[in-house]
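Please describe what follows:
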Amino acid sequence: MPTFEGYRKTLSPLQMQIYDALKDGMSRHRKEIEVQQCTDEALNGIFESVLLDHPEIYYVKGYRLWKRQDSSPMAVAPVYTSAPKEVKSVLESCSKAAEILISRAEGLDEYAQELFIHDLLLRVTYGDGHKAEAHSLVGPLLHGIGVCEGISKAAKFLFDLLGRKSFVVIGVAKTPKGHKDEPHAWNCIQTNGCWYHLDITFDNSLSGRSVKRYDYCNLSDYEIEADHKATKRLPVKCVTQQNYYQQTGAQIENKRQLVDFITKERSSGVRDIIVKFPFSEEEAYIMIREALAELKYKGTAAVSCNKQQMVFHLHCGENN
């Protein structure tokens, strides 16, 4: 399976040698791996890069290090959580499950493939963070459970199988002032030649049985920074602003566009209307009220807002 090694591309030639030695050694379940001398900080970063680039190495949790006084190679002893025989069995199961899941996506164009994987992982039940498999590709692929780390690693594994360039982003989800930012993970994906942020976990938390959300699908660096912050240097920059709602005509610029969009959706029997606004929350609420008044809508209408991304969910009840 071809694997996109995004973080390896950020390393120096010497660091790449250490990366390759760690990857090969951990793939072979070696007890000790000799690598060239480097600082503790550099080794930590390289080790993390290997695990992010290769979610299939799910069975390693940290390492022990033996340094020598001279310039001789250091000895890295990975901490394995599973025996080789068990790892082989689990990875075979993950590969079989993944191949079945993506079989319908292989003939799609790149954008459709991305949405397919996105929607596929919306089915994952978020939680069970105390279980190790929830933090790896194993939980989402084999048990239907996972937290942000597991969901993003499963996404990378699936994108790799499709021959797509993607990587896992490690960072924090920003919280209101006075609260500590929470550790978080998501993806970056290259689609049609451009790089975007893709947070399936956040969309998972916003979606429901009848509503799929794409608030965090194909965001630029500028857009994602409203409520995310990467804490590890990224291999690429995401500069293109062409998020899901822009691509589907659901980013609203004025009242006439909103009236037309609501009319189109309602004529198709849609009750849950999702739109994005490029201006303030107050302006958006006023525009929604004015649009419903112009449409002479007399039914119940519940409105909720993802303030960070300015995406509104308008649930229309039956007309009176």
Remarks:
- Residues 84-102 form the longest helix (19 residues).
- The two ends are 57 Å apart (CA to CA).
